[in-house]
Amino acid sequence: MSDISNKISVSVPAEELIKQREYTALVREIIEQRYSESPKAFVHTYGCQGNVSDGERLEGMLEEMGYDLTDELEGADLVLYNTCAIREHAEDRVFGNVGALKPAKNANRDMKIVLCGCMMQQQWVVDKLKKSYPFVDIVFGIHVMHRLPEFLYLNLARGKKIREFPEHDGVIVEELPVHRDSEFKAWIPVMYGCNNFCSYCIVPYVRGRERSRDPEAIVEEAKLLVSQGYKEITLLGQNVNSYGKHPDYGCNFSELLRRLNDIEGDFIIRFMTSHPKDCTYELLDTMASCQKVAKHLHLPFQSGNNRVLSEMNRRYTREKYLDLLNYAYSVMPDLSVTSDVIVGFPGETYEEFLDTVSLVEEAKFTSMYTFIFSSRNGTKAASMPDPISREEKGRWFRELLDSQEKIAAVRTSSMVGKTYRVLCESVSKGGLIEGRTGGNIIIEFPADKSVIGSFRDVKVKESLTWILRGELQ
Predict the structure, then answer these.
(1) How far apart, in whole angstroms, are the C-alpha atoms of residue 421 and residue 425?
(2) In a 3-state reduction of DSSP, which class is residue 59?
(3) Cα–Cα distance between 316 and 407 in angstroms, integer?
(4) pLDDT of 25 over the 60 cut
(5) What residue spans of 35-135 are helical by DSSP H?
(6) What are residue 364's phi and psi, to 5 degrees?
């Protein structure tokens, strides 16, 4: 069966979305009857940009049902935690924050507590919630997010506790309402799920198999955002460059970038995350030729040692990764590359870790997201022997950070005196305007806050290790 057929088969039927809109209207009726003013909903999202995008859709549904969104947990009538399963620390924070809600729930029995997202696709989490957090009203997994109106109605109208986390390969849901957290930066999911099964990663088990959105739906969403004044559009997927890769699909990721680049308007296109095994010369050539595509590539390498990469099931080698980088720099000399790396994978030796350090020194990354290995229940790596202590891994971690810090300092110092087109984003803690270059490097500069949301040319006057200081031109 082709990806086209798969795409159709995993799309939520129109009648299901109609039913959810009917539930939305029913919830709104209940709210109007019970509250003298709109109830407040506090939504907090943990984890990756994909989760953040999901959170915007959850907020959009809540607004349509009659809730006002609030940034204040205290006094909220509904608390929704959109969870992440990637790292143990994020899960611990969720359990801690949910436990802290118990006194508020005891004081206000009408307050609704909702848990959803990736964590809820794990059976051990569901069992723990049932045993230790019975006061939670609604729990559902990532694949039924679109049914939030139905779940809320059943709880509000009938007092029913909801526990819904079906095991399947995932769906595609179009036309959900979206509450954009920014007025000029937007996320667009282009594909969901993952087929890679890296031995340390829980994503395929909680997010399901790869499935791509219809390219026309993506292009139309982008056109609408540009017409509304959005200046930065970031394409999201667990592995964006596997988008539509089946030959029968008719549009791979490079072609999608070209279609988006052809949209009229002044905006920039970013994307994440890319897997090296699916990163091609075609994609790099497309980035180089498309004026609106940011010259920034986030390409996680995870380890610089081939044996460790094999144990991780990454399906590329150190040599392949460096070949991709060399080609990328040859067609985009000013390219900014960022990456992810895991320190202390089970069985990794110090000598193998030094291969990671040497790759970092050769690659000259702009920045890296560096993590000490975190075991995830249900993954292959969780059962691998892991003799190196956490303290020793911490020393390796600091050694790698020191190496990258020196590289970053050299890179930022080389930018002094040059002028960059910057998207002005916010006011920094020091009162300066904070913007971001096409290469995803932060520049701070004095200016009126009215420039926020626009592009400006900024000349770099000073370099710090990770950011720059400059002035408007």
Answers:
(1) 13
(2) helix
(3) 25
(4) yes
(5) 49-64, 88-99, 102-107, 123-132
(6) 60, 55
What's this model's pTM, rounded to 2 decimal places?
Answer: 0.94
Cis peptide before 273 (omega within 30 of 0): yes
> Strand, coil or helix: what is 71?
coil
Strand partners, 459: 419, 471
- What CA–CA distance (Å, rounded) separates 353 from 345? 9
Confidence of residue 7 (pLDDT cuts 50, 70, 90): very low
Quickly state the pLDDT bin for 246 (edges 50, 70, 90): low
Listed by start position, the domains of the chain span: 3-164, 185-413, 419-472
Alpha-carbon distance values, 179 to 61, 132, 176, 302, 439 (Å): 8, 32, 10, 34, 27
3-state secondary structure 125-189: HHHHHHHHCCCCCEEECHHHHHHHHHHHHHHHHHCCCEEECCCCCCCECCCCCCCCCCCCEEEEE
The answer for residues whose C-beta is within 8 angstroms of residue 211's C-beta and 6 or more apart is 6, 7, 10, 169, 170, 171, 172, 191, 192, 193
Say which amino acid occupies 356: T
419-472 is classed in which CATH architecture?
Answer: Beta Barrel (2.40)
Of 3.40.50.2000, 3.40.50.1110, 3.90.380.10, 3.40.50.12160, the CATH number of 3-164 is: 3.40.50.12160
CATH class name, domain 185-413:
alpha beta
